[in-house]
Design brief:
Radius of gyration: 21 Å
Number of helices: 2
Number of domains: 1
CATH superfamily: Carboxypeptidase-like, regulatory domain
Number of strands: 13
CATH architecture: Sandwich
Low-confidence stretches: 5-22, 126-133
Order of helices and strands: HEEEEEEEHEEEEEE
Largest sheet: 7 strands, mixed
Mean pLDDT: 81
CATH topology: Immunoglobulin-like
CATH class: Mainly Beta
Shape: elongated
Length: about 190
């Protein structure tokens, strides 16, 4: 739950900050695109955020991008695909399963289907009592859909991810390779 609240707050703050910007706001944006992989495979769904590193003199709103099925992303600050603030950034990556977890199947009605009800109840009790489902971190979107997180949770917060990227003037390619231990390498 802590992860969800932190990420949602950061995401909302980024969007709120960006909403106050206008075309003549003096921001120096540069195009940014790239790919993100985890353990050698593309992350197929999720979000990436570039948060300006104020400790290094980069100020302005955060940029956000959606990760597509081949692991690619394009950053947006004010408008779709316009890029990120020129300077140094702390990066957050959230990799999610493409489909939300399916809700539990409803139990049959004990009055109209007593046999099916007893079978379903027995199966549910057996699963609960004899098998332990691994605790998997999840993310709940604004519509209440629950998605499983597919990469280390710490990467979803720019303060804990330890991923840093530099954005220069012009067009930037930023590829992020996340290793099994949760560390990441950036290549430009």
């Amino acid at each position: 739950m802590k992860f969800q609240n932190t990420f949602v707050c950061l995401f909302v703050a980024a969007l709120t900050t960006a909403a106050g910007c206008g075309a003549n706001n003096g921001l120096h944006l540069a195009k940014v695109h790239g790919k993100v992989t985890y353990k050698g495979q593309p992350i197929t769904y999720g979000t990436i955020m570039f948060e300006p590193d104020t400790s290094r003199g980069t100020n302005g709103p955060a940029a956000v991008g959606s990760i597509t099925s081949d692991g690619s992303f394009t950053m947006s600050t004010e408008e779709s695909g316009d890029g990120a603030i020129v300077g140094l950034h702390r990066v957050a990556v959230v990799g999610l399963e493409p489909m939300p977890d399916s809700p539990q199947k409803a139990m049959p009605d004990p009055v109209t289907s007593p046999r099916e009800f007893m079978i379903a109840k027995t199966q549910a009790g057996t699963r609960t009592n004899f098998t332990k489902k691994a605790e998997v971190p999840t993310f709940t979107d604004k519509d209440g859909k629950v998605f499983r997180i597919t990469i280390p949770e710490k990467l979803g917060n720019p303060s804990t991810s330890n991923i840093k990227a530099s954005v220069g003037r012009g067009s930037n390619t930023v590829n992020i390779t996340i290793k099994e231990d949760g560390t990441a390498e950036i290549s430009h």
